[in-house]
Amino acid sequence: MFSQAEENIPQFLSKNLQELAGSQISDVVYLQTDKDLYFTQENLWFKSTVLDSKTNAPSNRSHILFVQLIEEKTDTPVWEEKYEIENGFVDGHLFLSDSLASGTYRLAGYSSHSYFKGQKEFYAFKKIKILKGEPQAEEDNQTDGSIHFAVFPEGGHLVSGLESRLAFKAVNTKGYSVEVSGTLYENDQALLEFETRHAGMGSFMFAPDANKTYRIQLNNQKEAKIEAFPKIQPQGKVLNYLGANHKDGYFKITQSPGQAEEKIYVRLQAKGVSSQVVVGYIKDELKLRIPIENLPQGITEVTLFDKDLKPIAERLIYANAHKKLYINAQLDKSEYQTRGKVRLKLSVTDETKTPTIAHLGLRIFGHLYKNTSDTKTIETHYLLSSQLKGRLYDPSYYFEAKNKNRNAALDLLLQTQGWRAYKWNEANLKEKGDNEPLVFDYYKGKMLNSIPNMHHIVKAFSFTGDSLKQFKPLMTNSLGRFVVTSSYFKWVEHDFLYLQGPFINEKIFPFQLNTNYYNDINNHRIKKNNHYPFTTFEKEIHEPKPFVLSSAHTRLSQVTVKVKKNRYGNKQSQKLKALLSFDYVCHLNIFNCENHVFLPNSTRPVKGRTYRLQSGTPFVYPYLPVGYNKDGLDFEVNLKEIMAQSNIKRIKGFYEKKEFYQPVYDKDYIDDGFPDKRSTLFWKPDIITNEQGEATVEFYCSDINSLYLGEIEGVSGSGQLGRTDFEFTVTKQKN
Question: Are residues 86 and 155 located together in one domain of the fold?
């Protein structure tokens, strides 16, 4: 039946899986913001963490993060920009304009290795709320009278006469968990009672009988929709998970009485990497202790194979929750005065208490700007949400040490979510196939009527600084194709990159440039399911009160506001009118010489002087910089017309970087009379601890006396994740 020798079967089971997972080279994107609630005309600061999907280590695969801010109600993008990914991280911001409506928005990120055509589910976004004017009450979408109740046999099936664990889950039609109790009936006789233990989930043990009928009845739930009771197999094997410690996982396999002794295989795999294949023989019952200490923290799939290598039982377990970053945040005080100085010392270790170098993001903000219903964290995102299909209820519960039943509750989640929901399950890997990107780290261009087998030069330039130095050639291949890589977008950060096609022997060679990535994103985005954690304990969101001036501040009688124009506006039009100053003459007096492309000794052409074309034909330079006359620049010249006439196209560079504003209220500070009304006191997305695992930050409080929340989360170079939080109060400064 199998050509492999008996001793090679474990290797075969591992290799088969790893070959499937080998094609799944991908990253997972996570976004953290400086707070959860915003007003319009504020800056939104964000950090994006881009990790390898298998190791959770920072990824260097992608270099561009395409970012959208999407209005939830209309599913319409209101902001689209691209940011540079540097060694797996993005430090970004955007401005929330006054034109934005109140409501919920999604800040979403897409990269060349995280967003694919065949992808059915999307997780790489952060929800925020924008407040404007009077707060609007949101519709209560949680309560619903109808209940859906489903049961999940451990391992996937029930076998007559063998004790099995039957997990169950109760939710309403909108997906919110419901606490229930009920009775299991056997031949219409009450057999046992049960009740939920966490988030609408629970389980019980019983030995079914294939010759009897079973039904479930819920207490006080007449409208409940109860799924049909699972079919009971007359014979077979059952897999039970007994628990684990830091070194080993314990399992029990039972087989129907009277069957011959049989060889079985148990495989443990995490993210497509097989860690163990255990071989054993079973007659009636077999208990196994399987080493798990080398597994990473996270979901592990356990599969039982029969002697013919047919999978007959599968379930998910959560291994090594202790393998994480332990982040300690130590404040120098618990209470500060307005404009007081705060000193925060951070220390990071791993599970062995070894100091660890980690990349951390820190946000400190007023408690009113916290969305208490948002339970998404770096741990829930990478360890649960992105690994399982479907939406998860309050996943942060399973990572909070104060919840003593969190491990048992997490095991219930994995039983009721089902092994088929695991992203790295073999069947899911086969169905998914290879990853075909939707966006790339470059833009493609093509000459439309290029000379065959000739390499053309496309001029790339910007208007920053000395224009003569802001020029780079792009060489096409023999087919007239070229690519604009991410390095060009960094080169023109906060600006446009202009591309000018060649002029050869006075002939224009037009070109095509693919800039439709956001169209591709939007066309596929509507086909994907957006999954975000949810809870049933959302608290009423109170709009933060406007800042009130104290008597210590002076109210100005008049304020004049000067509006800053669009950063891509008239300034660019004006400079573009001098576009042809990018023509050059080499030291041999050849105009736009393709053999001496804009060398340091190149000069600008001068009107009225004679130069030679590449062909050797002499000509008198006929051009004047476009839009230039005796009165200076003509501001009325249409930008699009100039670009079309000059064979030019343009692409936005990376969105500009800004530093988060941090006032320093030291002894040298001169009070300008203006109040400090920062709701985010401190935002630092790029804290890197030293070899001792330590880092220290300092900042100053604002004029707002309130409770402030601090949240830190991050990752080590080896892929360990961690987070912690803290709080402190700010009181009015005493005179």
Answer: no
Supply φ then ψ for residue 556, to 5 degrees. Answer: -75, 140
Number of domains in the chain: 3
| 46 plus 172 within the same structural domain | no
Output DSSP code: residue 579. G
Q: Is the dihedral of CA 689, 693, 698, 704 positive or negative?
A: positive
Q: By the 8 A CB rule, do 272 and 251 touch?
A: no
Residue 182 lies in a domain: yes
Q: For residue 490, what pLDDT band results from cuts at 50, 70 and 90?
A: very high
Asked whether residue 362 is assigned to any structural domain, the reply reads no
**Across-strand partners of 590?**
612
How far is Cα 506 from Cα 511, in angstroms, rounded to an integer?
A: 16
- Whole-angstrom Cα distance, residue 378 to residue 365? 18
Is-above-0.70 flag for pTM? yes
213 in the same domain as 73:
no
Domain boundary residue, one of 113, 139, 165: 139
- Ordered DSSP codes for 429-481: HHHH-S--BSS-SEEEEEESSPPTT---EEEEE--SS-GGGSEEEEE--TTSE
* Local structure of residue 643 (DSSP, 8 states): H
Distances (CA, A) of 623 to 82, 229, 384, 577, 627: 36, 84, 63, 12, 11
User: What confidence tier does 145 reach under pLDDT thresholds 50, 70, 90?
Assistant: low
Tens digit of pLDDT for each residue in 321-370?
999 999 999 999 999 999 999 999 999 999 999 999 999 999 999 999 99
Listed in sequence order, the residues at least 6 apart from 376 whose beta carbon sits closer than 8 Å to its beta carbon are 126, 127, 385, 395, 396, 532, 533
Measured CA to CA, the distance from residue 275 to residue 319 in angstroms comes to 12
- Paired sense of beta strands 273-282 and 262-270, if any: antiparallel
